[in-house]
Design brief:
The protein has 296 residues and is of the alpha/beta class. The protein contains 9 helices and 9 strands. Strands 1, 2, 3, 4, 5, 6, 7, 8 and 9 form a 9-stranded mixed beta sheet that branches. Helix 6 (173-183) packs parallel to helix 7. The model has no long low-confidence stretch (mean pLDDT 94).
Length: 296
């Protein structure tokens, strides 16, 4: 049976000042394999979302986190393929074409795309490298243990079997969902040619914003890891707060070294010190989460 290539693109939006650029990039897609709809879910105080024959704006009565917005969009989507992109991402013209082409293989059910890391602002660059390096578009295709929800395609049948993103997760909901998918027997495929540029607002280009995001990422990722620690064989160092604290300087250095071994990232050598700081703060977030677990 041939693949139904109708696509629903879902964008969680909470007053993004660049959502209009995201929508413009979607309208410029070369994809003509099937009908496409775009659902923007959330709120838009800047009035940048214009509804038309392609775009539908699903307004929420109150601000909602991304996991909730994505689930709302998936519930209202009409297509058999659900595609997620963030409201601060710009899609390359062939983004959707490359992403969906991987689903032509009947053995592929979940595909994540590549992220272009650009030196638009130092703190944003450090943040992006530290958090998104595993999905750099300069990487090789293959499978990954986790995929990022800012560039993700899922067959509806898989989505319905697994359930949506866990709405208890403020961050790292894609990590938790990825673990569930792998435990259910699905491989997570990576297609680096399906590129988006992650271009968060200029207000995010601050040291304090990087610190906050690193802490939140470590906190919520640790929560996801802890939930499935036996199933995924989580190393002891990530199970005990005191061990994570004792090893933080060394493990953060190891991860930073691994990051800058990735093809194409060496040119950002000047970001290395703050990427290391980011990974240290990530561990502080994880330590706080583990300490909270131990007291409940």
């Amino acid at each position: 049976m041939s693949l139904d290539k109708s696509v629903s693109v879902i964008i969680p939006n909470l007053h993004s000042p660049v959502i209009d650029r995201t929508l413009t990039s979607l309208k410029a897609q070369t994809y003509d394999e099937g009908p496409m709809e775009v659902l923007v879910v959330g709120q838009d105080k800047h009035h940048l979302v214009t509804e038309d024959e392609l775009v539908r704006f699903v307004r929420t009565p109150r601000p909602v986190i991304q996991s909730i917005a994505r689930n709302i969009g998936a519930d209202q989507a009409q297509s058999d393929i659900l595609v997620f992109i963030d409201a601060d991402c710009i899609a390359a013209p062939k983004w959707l074409q490359h992403l969906i082409s991987r689903l032509e293989d009947p053995n592929v059910d979940v595909v994540g795309g590549g992220v272009a890391l650009q030196p638009d602002g130092y703190w944003t660059l450090c943040d992006n490298i530290a958090i998104l390096y595993a999905w750099s578009f300069t990487g090789s295709p293959g499978t990954r243990p986790y995929l990022a929800s800012l560039n993700l395609a899922v067959r509806r049948k898989v989505w319905e079997r697994l359930g949506g993103f866990d709405e208890a997760f403020v961050k790292a909901e894609d990590t938790e969902w990825s673990i569930r998918a792998r435990l259910a027997g699905y491989d997570l495929h990576f297609e680096p040619r399906a590129v988006v540029w992650h271009q968060p607002p200029e207000a995010r280009n601050q040291f304090a914003a990087m610190v906050r995001r690193a802490f939140e990422s470590g906190y919520w990722t640790s929560k996801a890891f802890s939930r499935y620690r036996e199933e995924i064989g989580l190393p002891l160092v990530y199970r005990k707060a005191w061990l994570m604290a004792l090893s933080a300087l060394v493990t953060a250095a190891g991860v930073t070294f691994k990051i800058f071994r990735h093809q194409g990232l060496q040119r950002f050598w000047y970001a290395l010190p703050m990427v290391y700081v980011n990974k240290l703060i990530w561990r502080i977030g994880g330590i706080v989460q583990l300490l909270q677990q131990s007291t409940t």
